[in-house]
Amino acid sequence: KQWYQRRVAITAGGIYKRDKEGPATPADCLLPGNKLVAAGYCVFGTACMMVLSTGNGVNGFTLDPSIGEFILTADNMTIPKKGKIYSINEGNAQYLDNRLQRYLNDCKFPKDGSKPKSARYVGSMVADVHRTICYGGVFMYPANSLSPNGKLRLLYECNPMAYIVEQAGGKAVTGRGDERVLDLLPTKLHERCPIYLGSSDDIDVILSYLKE
């Protein structure tokens, strides 16, 4: 009956490089994502998988309960250059930028007569990004009129996932021009930022809409 009081471990995070010595301070944590030296996440289901990058590609490890160890099961994970899936909370559609609304409409009603993209949204960034890495496509948590800076946290949500996606061959941007998520310099620990990440070709298409 106490299940609702149990703590849930964060399933994504990163390790940043600190360039100075001495006692650590909160200001030492205000580093851009390009200072990451490692990032990873775990996904839980019928199996427990840990996806990790230390700056030389992305690898996936699955927990083997019989020996209590993570075994390499997906080496050199690479995101397809183009996908057929888009992932966004369309419940917020009325608050989105008109240019992004046009992109989403074209995903569902392609003007060239091609097959529409599939919409998939779990509501968990880790799960949605993991699927995006495996199958391609885009994950979006953009700025909107209610949340002009987005909702996801830069330091410990956006940066680690952007790092992994870039290491897998994808792109991660804020939607403000060509600005990379990993180049943002945070000014506070819980700072938020908008994010678009996924297949490089699909991100380029989204940016073309946002530059109109």
Structure explained in plain terms:
With 212 residues, the protein is an alpha+beta fold. It has helices spanning 98-108, 125-135, 154-167, 200-210; strands at 12-16, 36-44, 48-53, 59-64, 69-74, 85-87, 118-119, 138-141, 171-173, 195-198. Residues 1-10 have low confidence and may be disordered.
The number of helical segments is 4
Indicate the percent of residues in helices. Answer: 10-25%
Strand content: 15-25%
Question: What is the mean predicted local confidence, pLDDT?
Answer: 92
> H/E order of the elements?
EEEEEEHEHEHEEH
Low-confidence stretches: 1-10
Strands, count: 10
Give a quick account of the main beta sheet: strands, pairing sense, barrel closure: 5 strands, antiparallel
Task: Summarize, please.
The protein is an alpha+beta fold. It has helices at 98-108, 125-135, 154-167, 200-210; strands at residues 12-16, 36-44, 48-53, 59-64, 69-74, 85-87, 118-119, 138-141, 171-173, 195-198.
Could you list some keywords that capture this structure?
single chain, 212 residues, alpha+beta, five-stranded antiparallel beta sheet, 4 helices, 10 strands, globular, disordered N terminus
Provide the fold topology.
Blueprint: E1 12-16, E2 36-44, E3 48-53, E4 59-64, E5 69-74, E6 85-87, H1 98-108, E7 118-119, H2 125-135, E8 138-141, H3 154-167, E9 171-173, E10 195-198, H4 200-210
Parallel strand pairs: 6-7, 6-8
Antiparallel strand pairs: 1-2, 2-3, 3-4, 4-5, 8-10, 9-10
